[in-house]
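New to this. Please check this protein:
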Amino acid sequence: MNYYEALEGYIGRTVEVFLANQVYIGELQEVEECYFTLQTSDTYYYGPSMTVTVIADSVQFVRVLAA
């Protein structure tokens, strides 16, 4: 099992994605071999949610939050 196969089991769950200089928190929507997408909400303002595409090679680590 590789990285993206492991993440596929968590689609629909809330995850924290840590990059070198940024953190995204959101619901894991889609996982592909080179990237994955999250549905995030703006934590500072009550703006609309947005879809964030994360390149897998830029990720430091992913934490799956408890349900």
